[in-house]
Amino acid sequence: MIERAAIGPDLDALRDGALRWTDLRPAEKARLLAEVAAATAGVATRWTAVAAQAKGIAGTPLAGEEAISGPWALLYALNRYIRTLDQIAATGRPRIPAKRVRQRADGRTVVEVFPETLYDTLLLNGVRAEVWMQDGVTPANLSETLGPWYAQPDPQPRVALVLGAGNIASIPPLDVLYKLVADGAVCALKMNPLSAYLRPIFDVALAPLIRAGYLRILEGGAELGAQLCADLRIDEIHVTGSRRTHDAILAELRAAGVEKPLTSELGNVSPTIVVPGDWTEDDFAFQAENIATQKRHNGGFNCIASQVLILPESWEGTQRLIGEIETVMREWAAKPVSLTTRNSTNT
Prior knowledge:
Layout: H1 4-23, H2 26-54, H3 63-91, E1 101-103, E2 109-114, H4 118-123, E3 129-132, H5 148-151, E4 158-163, H6 171-181, E5 185-191, H7 199-205, H8 207-211, E6 215-219, H9 222-230, E7 236-240, H10 243-256, E8 262-265, E9 270-273, H11 281-296, E10 306-310, H12 318-333
Parallel strand pairs: 4-5, 4-7, 5-6, 7-8, 9-10
Antiparallel strand pairs: 1-2, 2-3
């Protein structure tokens, strides 16, 4: 067990940082994240190389996975957060153009969130995403639900514990950014032992947040995680991991008589639904690779990996698509995977 005094200075520094983060204006937050983006860009090549080496895919085309799901994903998010903070600085709220908001026949409000820019359209051509709002949210009051932390007259300083994921390299810093920007909480990031090799990378990429006292990065196993969860200087907890980890945290908190908010991202059973149609030969080939890639990415060690394939029962293309997918998977079988599918609960 790591002694409590070993983490005390870090948590005390975060308590002080929480006071300053609460008072920091959105424009100043945006400038700080711009520094993080510059630091991340500077370490992106090294980040990709280190991750590819750790996963046994250095020198192969699969190394590109680590560039995309590592530094690129973090930079993409940083740019969006900076834009959001700029909007809050200008108007007090994030902005959603009215043309992106509609109501279904049942009255539910729907917001089109992707693609937002020409870059989005070029990057993922044909992909769309929308958010169905909760009951009671209307086009008229939608703006009141955006960035609620920034509308509080006197938000309380908070320290969040982020138990970092062990599979996708960008998830720990992405979780930190969400807690900082959306929830207004400074963060103690406890690295998953599986991704501890990224600590030197994060020390550089996130250095502006660390120097300012808004982030501390800690390393250790389940014992350190349990100690941090129970520490009264931690106001809330977020975990990306397994259901077993989530349940263990709840059990530890209840046993200690400690109550604090806990949010969890525990993965799911993602379906791929195939819509029948007049598919061409190229359609079958492209979609077979697309489906296989969803399953194979990061060796399948991915919380959003496609787990269920739903096919039309009477469509004449169903068997052909299955055959194409099997062919692709056989061709890839002898190639290196990007990560062993060890499922870690040691967060």
